[in-house]
Amino acid sequence: MSELKDANTNPWYVLMTLYGEQERERVDWELAEKNRKVWNAWACQELSDEERARVCASSQVEVADTLGWSDVEAEVRKMHRAEMVKRNSKGFSYTGFPDFDEAIRLSEIRFSNPVELEKRIFTQVANFRSATFTQAASFRYVIFMQNANFPSATFTQGASFDSAIFRQDAYFYSATFTQNAEFPSATFTQGAYFFSAIFRQDAYFHSATFRQDAKFRFATFEGPAKFVGTRFGLRDGGQICVPDFTEAVLAKLVSFRKAEFPQYYPVLAGAVFSGKVIVTADKAFWPSMDQVLLDEVSGDAEHISTKEVAKESSATLRHEMGRQGLPEEEHFFFRREMEFARQLGLSKSKEVWPYFKAWPYWIFKTFSGYGESITRPLIWLGIAFVTFAVMFSAYFNWMNEFYDKAFAAAAPFTLSGANLFSFLGFHRFYFSSLGFAEMHWFVQFLCAVEVVMGLVLLFFLGLGLRKRFRLR
Length: 472
Fold this sequence. Notes:
Layout: E1 5-6, H1 11-16, H2 29-43, H3 49-57, H4 69-87, E2 104-105, E3 109-111, E4 115-116, E5 121-122, E6 126-127, E7 132-133, E8 137-138, E9 143-144, E10 148-149, E11 154-155, E12 159-160, E13 165-166, E14 170-171, E15 176-177, E16 181-182, E17 187-188, E18 192-193, E19 198-199, E20 203-204, E21 209-210, E22 214-215, E23 220-221, E24 225-226, E25 231-232, E26 243-244, E27 249-250, E28 254-256, E29 272-273, E30 277-279, H5 307-323, H6 327-349, H7 359-368, H8 375-399, H9 411-420, H10 426-430, H11 441-468
Parallel strand pairs: 1-3, 2-6, 3-7, 4-8, 5-9, 6-10, 7-11, 8-12, 9-13, 10-14, 11-15, 12-16, 13-17, 14-18, 15-19, 16-20, 17-21, 18-22, 19-23, 20-24, 21-25, 22-26, 23-27, 24-28, 27-29, 28-30
Helix pairs in contact: 5-6, 6-7, 8-9, 8-11, 9-11
């Protein structure tokens, strides 16, 4: 990497700090306002009134700050030249006023003073590649209308992008945040790329919104990573957002409390969780279990989540919840893991025998809701009890079995109940001396089927009770 240049040699930086730089930790808001008005007037000089209103409507920027460039242009150009000469040593050659039609080039720059850019508008591509911010950097309420490029940038002190709006792609790959990195309520309209970014202290993404790609592949979170209330995609938004934490290292607390994943599960392949993981185990924050996912994707559709990815992510979260001793949350992701295993079984079974791999999951889902429901096995026990009792009654009437016994009318129901609760030994008490062994083979077969069904349904009922009362 080439040697970093001083920020004051850069015409764009001098324009954005035309009335002076911030020199103390405490922000001079009067100075910041004067600088902001000049910058926004220059940046928005070609926007129509409708475009200005639209840009400012979803931000904290006032329309008045974007007006009046033609009135101050001559004076600003004169001040800009004088300020650049003043800030640099003798022999400095003035490089000219920034060209509005060019990208904003602030790459490989060293910012020695605090950078206060609150409520600024960037109408051109903003390049901060390999820039180093030695003091606090504030991009609060900034609007990036084109790509925001911060690859390999270094933020030595705190970096704040509170409520910033990225209307195009935001690139932070290989960026280093030495102190807190704050992105609360930030909006990423298109892709947000944090490949291999390093967060050495707290990373705040509270209430941020990612509408498309949210890539944190190979990122390192050495401090707490807080995605509280973050929205990864919008329901029925027409855009695809797959949160990608592949091979990410999360060394401390990771909080997804009330984070919304309305479209796809986060990709957690190879992610390392060393601390506590907090999630909200509520279906309102996760994709529907009936959502249709692709079996596989190819090349240009890499960002599409698949059934295999969703199953693996659910398994990872289930494992983390189990490690922390959270049975409710663990079972929440267990059910989703089973559902995607069922869907994968249906897909892959076509290669061998239809439904061969999927039917155990179908039984588990239908009769017990993957071990969650108490009602389902009870209902199916009731259905089995009545259905088999009716069949036994038809047989007894046909064969005149037990017609001379006092309990003849109750015999079919007694036999059905004894089958369902075979482990209690009712057969031995009530049917051992009544010729059960001499009954038709088909009745014996029905009894065997009902015994098996009873054991399975009672097992499912036990799973539901265990889950409901959190028994170990």
